[in-house]
Amino acid sequence: MDKQVWLSPMEGVSDLGFRNLCINQGADMTFTEMIRADAIVRGNKATLSLIDTHIPLKQGIQLLVSKPAILQKALEKIDFTNITGVDLNFGCPSPDVIGKGKGPALLKRITRMRDLLTILKTHSPVPCGIKIRLGMNYREKENKIYLKVVELANEAKLDWITVHPKTADKTSQDPIDVDALKEIIAVAKIPVIGNGFVCDKKSAQEMFDMGCSGVMVARAAIGNPWIFNEIKGISVTKDFAKAFEEYKKIASLYGTKQKYFNYHNEIFELRKKGDMAYHSPSRIDVY
């Protein structure tokens, strides 16, 4: 794995049509929005519909889970046709997620984390990895619990670890901790995917220069699927109307949820009018 450029899971954004559009513009890997593993086990229809992997793409699913038994059952229940990767989320800063002891709240629970990563590697039929933050807060970061998690990922021989180098109590506008990311790269024996403020070729190259094997792009891809080829130094022509038509073809064919369709329609209309700001409205959750 070398200089990969991935699309981040984004709630209300990362549907099949958008993932397909990004793949066609150079994304090496994409992910569904975060999916709750316990709801998969219960057979919740709304949750199962989020696994919209209807055509062959380089696409993974991202799971939120806190119990090893639930993770195993979910992996056994998922139809892995057209799924090329599984990611566990330990980075979502949502108070609802953290309040239930999930996401970054699990990072300090070393025994539980080891069990989850072992189940993941043992039972996933496709390459698998995790996405983490540096801990819940400054104290956890100071205790370097993130390095303990990296060691667990090494031990489990995961295929990647994606790092958003902030603590969960930081906002989307707070800076990333470059020194912590460098520490992680030095300790990791598996590929590290850097995440956070990757918005152009320069910011991606900075992470590659640190030693990241790949970068994960989030808000910067919204309405701008060409960013993947731009990061790779490939010349692009931005035709927003054509891009939305390409999105609409797949979204309509496979019955995307209306919220996705409405959102992308709005964003591409804004882009056509010259609004090139890459950041998205605050309602978008990036995991």
- In CATH terms, the superfamily is Aldolase class I
- The third-level CATH topology is TIM Barrel
Largest sheet: 8 strands, parallel
Regarding CATH, which class?
Alpha Beta
Structure explained in plain terms:
This protein is an alpha/beta fold and 287 residues long. Helix content is 41%, strand content 14%. The protein has 13 helices and eight strands. It has helices spanning 16-24, 37-42, 45-48, 68-77, 95-99, 110-123, 138-142, 145-156, 178-187, 201-210, 227-231, 240-253, 258-272; strands spanning 4-7, 30-36, 59-64, 85-90, 128-132, 160-163, 192-195, 214-217. Strands 1-8-7-6-5-4-3-2 form an eight-stranded parallel β-sheet. α10 links the parallel β7 and β8 (214-217).
Task: Spell out the key features of this protein.
287 residues; alpha/beta; TIM Barrel; 41% helix; globular
Quick summary:
The protein has 287 residues and is of the alpha/beta class. It has one domain: Alpha-Beta Barrel (TIM Barrel), CATH 3.20.20.70.
Task: Summarize the helices and strands and which ones pair or pack.
Blueprint: E1 4-7, H1 16-24, E2 30-36, H2 37-42, H3 45-48, E3 59-64, H4 68-77, E4 85-90, H5 95-99, H6 110-123, E5 128-132, H7 138-142, H8 145-156, E6 160-163, H9 178-187, E7 192-195, H10 201-210, E8 214-217, H11 227-231, H12 240-253, H13 258-272
Parallel strand pairs: 1-8, 2-3, 3-4, 4-5, 5-6, 6-7, 7-8
